[in-house]
Amino acid sequence: MTRTKISWTLAAFGLLLAAGPLAAHHSFSAEFDADKPVTLHGVVTKVEWTNPHAWINIDVKGDDGQTVAWRIEAGAPNALLRRGFTKAYLPPGTAIVVEGFRAKDGSNRANGSNVTTPDGKKLFLGSSGTGAPYEEKGK
Amino acid sequence: MRVPLAIILTLIAGVVTLAAQTRYTGPRTADGKPDLNGIWQAMNTADWDLLPHAAAQGPVLALGAAGAQPPGLGVVEGDDIPYLPAATAKKKLNGAHWLTEDPEVKCFLPGVPRATYMPYPFQIVQTPSNVLIAYQFASAVRSIPLKARPGESPADSWMGDSYGHWEGDTLVVDVKGFTDTTWFSRAGDFHSDELHVVERYTPLSHDAIQYEATIEDPQTFSRPWKISMPLYRHLEKNAQLLEFKCVEFVEELMYGPLRKQSSK
Amino acid sequence: MIRAYIALLLLASLPLAAQTPARTAPATKTWKQGKTPDGQPDIQGVWVNFDSTPFERAAASATGTSAAPASGNQNALLFADRAPKVQQRPSMVVDPPDGRVPLTPWAEQQRDYDLSHVQDSWEYNTTWERCITRGIPAAIFPAGYNNGYQILQTPGQVVILYEMIHEARIIPVDGRPHLPAALRQWNGDPRGHWEGNTLVVETTNFNGKGMIATNAASARIRSVPETENAHIVERFTRVDENTINYEVTIDDPKVASAPWKVAMPLARDDSYKIYEYMCHEANRDYMEITLGGGRLKEKTDAAAGRK
Questions:
Q1: What is the pTM assigned to this prediction?
Q2: Which residues of B touch A1 (CB under 8 A)?
Q3: Which site among A71, B104, B238, B252 is 20 to 30 Å from C109 CA-CA?
Q4: What interface predicted TM-score (ipTM) does this complex get?
Q5: Closest CA in chain C for residue A110
């Protein structure tokens, strides 16, 4: 799939965000906390191409200079594949900015809303179903 | 479509030659292939250990004889699995800890060729363009298009990416695109994501298939090696593949400590 | 005899591409239902149902305020090129005529209890979240992705491979009886027969631990139980080269006060490759976060002196 087609897909997806809940298999609120948004600047260490969710592992450097590993939940890989995104899209070493919501168990995991890559492109991670703040307007 | 006589004669010659070599005289499908449709099962202890093994103590004392390892003649040609020196230690470690480390125990997809010789039946669904194999264990399944591999699979999988073709009366299946997460047996035999398996299903009769699998993985083994075993048809009237969705039997094992303790 | 043999040889030597088109062939006005070698109407191929039709119609409420809006399957719009080209319908539920499932109070209580206790144990999560199965018929209700089904037919059976969760459903059409009543399964026990060009599949022998719907697009039906007494009747009718009309009647008296029907078209797409949807193998994170979050909340609440 060409780059332009990917951009159109992302734009269309963005429009759809306001239109209603996305269909997936479980609810956002069981796992993630809408009151705990996170913005993480990190470097990709590994992308796990797994179902029901792909996971992006990143190393985040804190203000104290310590590096902390985070896991970011993304959508189902087969769905990403069909839109032209492969595991190779985020190779280890890529610096990314992740926006998302923290996991409810207090671990360093988050449901990823989107990822911004070094070229400035924003990639919607489409991970969750009903209830995510970025999915419903009136919530 | 008009076909030149030369081609017809060549084809007849080919069939005659083939007929002389083929020993299969059982039923054939409408497209002339041996009919492999049905429910099959291996009858050996390869899932415990591919190599020759005597009976041995099992890991769970309370299971007694029911949990002991039964003996087996082995299914590896040459009785040797040629691990690279660096990989030998890992196999030993796996085998010593199989109760906690074997993906089978957690009801994970068994991979290929292990799915073939687990002690449970599987069903072959054979059409001219596709062979589907449904395994009772964990509802594992493989869909095998009968055509040339069009390219690398964009994603690795536990059961691999299979493409098949017929060589005479033998169904040959080429499998690549594996993750490195499955084992070959409880003895701890393992592989990398470079695993390449070529299976051959050769019917011996309507009720038996000779199954061979050549295993190649330059990251783990110094050369390709081969396993071989018969598969037997289930002859029960109305034989049916039943559900063995084992996830519900391992949830307590895997997530027990996370559960609300008072809810049980 | 020898002529037939030669004909068979020539057929077998044709390139496979001639048997499986790379993409869907355009629907032709003169389409005729083909047959398999054993005389079944041929419905083989890869079929998809990316479909953004709402599962139910929005409720009309006496007070004038609308109930939870009937949510469509927005994700499916991304795959618009794969969506069946059919008329817009108000809902997938077509019977009762108001497009709403006549749920019993018991069913709603069960659903609500399960949904509000997902952090307690895996058993309150849907069978999909547990990575056991999406359910039958739920596995064919469109999700936002991976709505692929491969249908194969061999003498005496129809086999449907559902992409999620790698479910090979083997449906005998040879008249054999159902399994013994004591043998119960998550997805029941299907038996099919042909009525003209319609494949009718009756499924019984459910183990009662599953749900009638597990995807978010089914909205208020998600997590509603499917009891041991569920009796599911599906009808698959191929109406042209590229379309199967699918409908399912769900009869489960403890769950709904009358049988109800869901209908949707399936579109042929032989270019759609069904990839492995392994699920349980990577589900640990979900359980750790969901259940672990519950245990953390209990600790936090206890520490703060709240219960």
A1: 0.87
A2: none
A3: B252
A4: 0.91
A5: C289
Q: How far is CA A46 from the centre of its chain?
A: 14
Q: Which DSSP category does A109 fall into?
A: E
Q: What is the pLDDT of residue A28?
A: 78
CB atoms within 10 A of CB C105: 8
Q: Does position C13 have pLDDT exceeding 90, yes or no?
A: no
Q: Residue A9 maps to which CATH number?
A: 2.40.50.140
The answer to whether C93 touches C99, Cβ cutoff 8 Å, is yes
Residue B127 and residue C153 in contact, taking contact as beta carbons nearer than 8 Å: yes
> Which tokens hold the place of C226?
């499917």
Number of domains chain A is built from: 1
Tell me the three state secondary structure of residue A131. Answer: coil
Smallest CA–CA distance from B258 into chain A, residue:
A105
Tokens of B91: 């196999």
Q: In chain B, which residue's Cα lies nearest the Cα of A77? A: B155
Give the contacts of C124 (CB within 8 A, at least 6 positions apart): C113, C114, C115, C117, C118
Contact criterion met (CB < 8 Å) for C12 and B31: yes
Q: Residue A88 falls within a domain, yes or no?
A: yes
Give the closest residue to A95 by CA, choosing from A117, A113, A72.
A117
Residues 35-74 of A with CB under 8 A from C: 48, 50-53, 55, 71, 73
> pLDDT for C132-189, tens place per residue?
999 999 999 998 888 999 999 999 999 999 999 999 999 999 999 999 999 999 999 9
**Residue-by-residue DSSP string for B180-231:** S--BSSTT--B--TT-EEEEEEEEEETTEEEEEEEEE-TTTBSS-EEEEEEE
Q: Let me know if residue A16 belongs to a domain.
A: yes
Shortest CA gap A63–chain B (Å): 32
HSE-CB for B146 with a 13 A CA cutoff: 23
Is A118 domain-assigned?
yes
Structural domain boundaries in chain C: 32-58+70-295
Range of the domain at A23: 3-124
Residue A47 CB neighbours (<10 A): 22
Report the gap between the CA of C201 and the closest CA in chain B (Å). Answer: 16
